[in-house]
Structure formats: structure tokens, C-alpha cells
Hints:
Elements: H1 3-15, E1 17-21, E2 24-27, H2 28-55, H3 66-91, H4 99-112, H5 115-130, E3 138-141, E4 146-152, E5 156-160, E6 166-170, H6 171-176, E7 179-181, E8 189-197, H7 203-216, E9 220-221, E10 229-235, E11 240-248, H8 250-253, H9 256-273, E12 294-297, E13 300-303
Antiparallel strand pairs: 1-2, 3-4, 3-7, 4-5, 5-6, 8-11, 9-11, 10-11, 12-13
Helix pairs in contact: 2-3, 4-5, 7-9
Protein name: Mechanosensitive ion channel-like protein
Transmembrane segments: 28-48, 75-94, 100-129
Domain Mechanosensitive ion channel MscS C-terminal: 193-276
Amino acid sequence: MNFSEWLDHAGSLLTHPLVSVGQTDISIGRLIAVIGFLVLAGVVVSLIDRALQRLAKPGRSVTLSKSGVYALSRIMRYTVWALVAFMGLDYLGINLSHFALIGGAIGVGIGFGLQNIFSNFISGIVLLLEQTLKVGDFVDLQSGVVGRVSEINIRYTRVTTNDSVDVIVPNSEFINGRVTNWTFDTDSRRVHVPFGVAYGCDKDLVREAGLAAAETVDGTVSNATHKSDVWLVGFGDNSLNFELVIWVNEQLVKTPARTQALYLWALETELTTRNIEIPFPQRDLHIRSGVLQIAKVDGAEASS
């Protein structure tokens, strides 16, 4: 078989219909072309991501935030893949007008059990467009999930806790429920660290110890508008109750348990240095004086 005959044989193999869809014969060549469309779409998406990443770099005339780049790249990615999917179906000869019937079937499906999927889909688009939630934000959800937003997808958002546990949260939960975003638009937040000292301790000395403890923790924010303070907040059963009120940077905001432990550690050190007693529960036992009466009952002594 010479080269021309081999080409004719290969051409006939590529154009040989495998299955017919409507008036169009689907052949190996058409399937290869569709795969080419997909590869081209992947290249286009990659180029768009790289171009948007360049816009996020400082020093350029037009600069986007990282969250803006992430949202825009996601939207562009979904748009490109949707266009390629329609182009591929059209090339295969599948009549796109039939999607009207499919759309009606999907509508019925939404009414019978796909409400959650559709709701999460729309919620994901809203999150990407509004940017009320961004990758890297530290959130506290109404359901009790606390962690850093690692990824926002079209159906779900991945939240990573400080124990490196990934929690898959449906997007609708961010739209319909209460969400506390600790890192929404500022880099610092105020936290309260409660502690107690024994009655009779010098309040001014306690304040001095608290402020000294705040200064020893790396990440404490102290400036003209953000100042550390010590508040007397209550009279407990066994102690004077204080709160160390400090402003912390974004890194400490994202690790609340560790932040609490750091300041308690520093407080114990400073209080011990100043001989300030940290109380423990105590009870005073009073025994009333009385008379113990002893009487004889049937020849035996009994006390009353």
C-alpha cells in the first residue's frame, strides 16, 4: 500500500459514520474535532487566567484585586466552556432547538427535587459577582463552621478550618444564612480576652499587667485609633472579672483559639511577675455554737 492509498484509507476511516444524529453522521473525524475544541478551550482558559493574573500585579496602569481576578477568571472560565459546549454540539449536528424541550424538562426537575442544586448554582454566581465572600476570608457560619475560604465554585464553597479540615459548604448557605466575615474589608479586629484576679488586688497594677501582656504578643495592633485597654466588667463570686481588649492583625484574627491562648499565656506571666493572685473557687464554712443534749431512752443514752 503506497502513501496515497494509505491516506485514502485513513480519510475513509475518519469519515466513516459511527452513528447518525438527525441528519448528521457522527464520525471519528468529527469526534476528534470536538476533542480539539475542548483542548483549544483549555488553552484559552489558561491564557485568560494568566492575563488576569498579570493585571493583579502592582505597578500596572490597570490593577485588579486578587479577589476580583479570581471572580472574573471563574466567570470567564464558565463562559468559555459553555460556548465551546454549544459549538461542539452544533458541529456534531445536534439541533440546539431541542434544548428548549430539555429546558422544560429541567424546569420540571427543579420543581420536583433539583431546587437545591439550582439554588446553589445561582448563589455561586451571586457570590462571584458581589464579592461579599472572597478566597482567603475568615468566616463564621450560622451552622457553626469556622475557617478560611479556600475555594469558591459554582455549586459549593470549600472552607478550611484551622485544623486543616476541608468543609464543603453549599453556596446557598452563604446567601440564606448568617455569615460573619472577620476579614471583609479591614486588616484588624478587636478581640476580648476575659480573666479574673482575687479581690483586694490593685486595679491599676492589673491594668499595667494587661497592657504589658498585650505588648509581648506579636500581632497586637497599637496606634492612635487602635489602643489596647483593660476593662473591669464584673464582680464574680470569687474574683474581680476583667477583659483585656486588644486590636489584632489579620493573622491573629484567622486563628481565634491560638490568639486567645497567646494572650492568656502572656497575662499569666505578667500577673505572676507582679504577685497578682489568680483566684480559685473558695467557700467559707461557718459552724454555729450550740448545746449537745444527751438523754436516756430505755436505759440507753441517745443524743438529740
